[in-house]
Batch of 2 targets.
Target 1
Amino acid sequence: MLSQTVEYALRAMVYLASAEEEVCPVDEVAEGTKVPPSYLSKVLQNLNRAGLVQSKRGLQGGYHLSKDPTETTILDVVNAVEPIERIHTCPLELKSHGTNLCPLHRRLDSAMAEVERAFGTTTLQELITDPSPSVPLCDFPCPKRSTGAE
Amino acid sequence: MLSQTVEYALRAMVYLASAEEEVCPVDEVAEGTKVPPSYLSKVLQNLNRAGLVQSKRGLQGGYHLSKDPTETTILDVVNAVEPIERIHTCPLELKSHGTNLCPLHRRLDSAMAEVERAFGTTTLQELITDPSPSVPLCDFPCPKRSTGAE
DNA sequence: TTTAAATCGGACATTCTTATCCAATTTAAA
DNA sequence: TTTAAATTGGATAAGAATGTCCGATTTAAA
């Protein structure tokens, strides 16, 4: 139900969140998240345009989050890539329905609303420092890159 | 987030539910639901294979529900056309995760679970006889077809 | 028996999603 | 200053979703 692209974007964001202080090149993120590198490149460009990540070109360049992981929710990422479409008017465009939705579309929309709510209340920070100890984090390794000084 | 095909299938099922006693030809359903007739034809064929509707070929033929509207939920329709994919194992296939999900995928899956729950608890019957009077039904007209005896 | 209304299935067209590749550009380090 | 690492944007391609068309078949009614 969520697109592949959304899945990739979320993985990348979680990866970058767990690598907070560093700048990560696409190829590293791609390896850590098992996303096709050339496609991930496009996804990250979109996230950049959406203002969720920042890029640094050239040697020692790459991507990093533009905000603190506490400031970005799952919903922010989803909406940046493929917005959740709420149903505001009857898709049949029946004149008899103003802004009212028929029972079917009211149900569909409230399911979407519930998803929005759930995604909107979880930040990247919560994902990387998870309260439940029984379930391990995705072990995004985020290898500390050589800084040249070690 | 839901595909166009799911939307069409749900409209058609609601239409047929509100036309319960009759057999409706594709063109009639298509007009009532504003779905492209030739595409709806394919959708109804799928719903037929999934056992949700029955078809009757030839003159005076068409489609009708195979079960009582109280017996079919929104989820049944969705799953017949484009099943909601629950996340059972980490999509990254990390060996360190057995059947455990990382925090990200646990959240995504529980959102899917919530949608499943919501869709699974609403029947077609509930959609056509809606409790809330303030919001009108989609006025699927379902014209009573001439029976030749009137 | 003929005719017309219907579904059925296959072939096809179009558009969107997913994915790849490469030349151009930027930039830090050697 | 040169080099290599990196993003950027464009072109392109494969596949899936969406949509159309038509001949074959079925079936009730005239």
Note: Confidence is low (pLDDT under 50) at residues 133-137, 141-150 of chain B.
Target 2
Amino acid sequence: MYTVPDLRAHGGADAFLRNCASRAVLDLLTNKWVCLVIGALRPGTMRFGELRRRLDGITQKMLTQTLRDLERAGLVNRDLYPSVPPKVEYSLTPLGENVGVLMDAIRVWAEDHIEDIRTAQVTYDAKATEELQPI
Amino acid sequence: MYTVPDLRAHGGADAFLRNCASRAVLDLLTNKWVCLVIGALRPGTMRFGELRRRLDGITQKMLTQTLRDLERAGLVNRDLYPSVPPKVEYSLTPLGENVGVLMDAIRVWAEDHIEDIRTAQVTYDAKATEELQPI
DNA sequence: CAGTATCCGTCCGGATACTG
DNA sequence: CAGTATCCGGACGGATACTG
């Protein structure tokens, strides 16, 4: 029989519960663009245009939205230099650097296990197909 | 000036590129339910119904879909016991246990930093409001 | 018990146009 | 340069009904 592990080990928060605030934090973090933006900012400060070019495939809207969410959550700093043309620099806060270690680990894991995943998927799809046509 | 770090350090994969296969893997992993399902399975094998009850708020459809995706990617085992009523047990594969360490870290981080995030968000929202009404 | 099938509203995310 | 505003299709995800 399954028993729930000790949830109070770190403050009583439990992301498995739908109304726990940690579920919302998890929602924020488990996002492709969030992972990549934070990963891009780990080496250092970047401007908006630099981020847009680095995050291949992201639209202006999604980059703006992601950066706002991260700024609001206190993971990213936004520094505006009111020059003409305007210059905006983004960087990680200490909290952002903290979670950045985890975001990087996820991204690197994905990069390192492409073949494992692809092989498994091909095998799975082949089995599904052969079940439909047993010769 | 920003320079791209050495991408070839682990096989040439780069999730920042839109067509890199690792981007698809990242897409699979950066998902709330994926994180929670893998986290729930780390302590050991669980049945479908047990998972549904543990992952508060998940629907049958999303649980099935998530489990299929993970099974197809080779992260989860599905063991069917053709009894009546049927019994299906889910567990992590070695690959699943491997990424499970990272998924758990993300979830625990979320649980541990609720207050930091909430404080930052309240502060951000307060500033946005005062800018609209400078008295 | 562990699904599959279907319907349907929401909102994610892309494309485009415009601005300080 | 770094946004904002708007439109829109399609996927995501929930609710419900049915099944081996």
Note: The radius of gyration of chain B is 20 Å.
